[in-house]
Amino acid sequence: MPLILEVCVDSTESALAAVKAGADRLELCSNLGLGGGTTPSLGLLKSIRKVAPIVPIMIMIRPRTGDFVYTEAEFDVMIEDIRYFRENDVQGVVFGVLTPEGDVDVARTQRLVSEALPLQVCFHRAFDMTPWHQLSQIDGLTRILTSGQGTTATSANSLDVLKDLLDLAKYQDTRIEILPGSGINSFTVGALCQALLPHGLHEVHMSGGHWTDGASIWRRDGMGMGVGGASEWGVWRTNTSAIRAVKDAIDSFKV
């Protein structure tokens, strides 16, 4: 079996580019270039379904950028969004909830998992900021997106953590997939696969995105609608060649 490539996207254009380049699954967000992504709209999901009706889609459930400690009002929004998307042809949802002390909020996470079932559930990279053993207390998780608790999944320390996580999932039969992400590109994915395949790697996650110049020709001096700097008037887009290069690389490996 080939390795699965998941690509995170935040537009119809990026979704189509990723699928054409060989993505096996999409993680759908909004605002991907502005702090890691937030919950997308139903309109975006339906637009992508018109151009990519078959590809599995995981929906980011994150009411805002910033930390992963949510107010009661924000948590209620997450529950409602899960209910909304559960009825709209998605494979699953992606979220992460922490306590102010940096632990997994086990009670809230279990509540969200229960709302999402029978969909797949991925705990996202909030995992990398917390003691990872806590997720073993939660029933119903499908996978964990993680950089190995480092800034990228491809550093030596991160690879060691990812090996431990994969071994734990395999030998304890937790049935939770470990999904490495962050820093994965055509230059790093080969070494990552060589290091992790003996430990049970089945899938990898990447963005492959970059800022492109927007279509506005007239731009008022000193003003903008973006995040400042080079991306002030920019649009975040998936790079087809970046996705295809990683897909070609991982297809040379077998699970």
UniProtKB/TrEMBL annotation:
<dbReference type="InterPro" id="IPR005627">
    <property type="entry name" value="CutC-like"/>
</dbReference>
<dbReference type="Pfam" id="PF03932">
    <property type="entry name" value="CutC"/>
</dbReference>
<comment type="similarity">
    <text>Belongs to the CutC family.</text>
</comment>
<protein>
    <recommendedName>
        <fullName>Copper homeostasis protein cutC homolog</fullName>
    </recommendedName>
</protein>
<dbReference type="GO" id="GO:0005507">
    <property type="term" value="F:copper ion binding"/>
</dbReference>
<dbReference type="InterPro" id="IPR036822">
    <property type="entry name" value="CutC-like_dom_sf"/>
</dbReference>
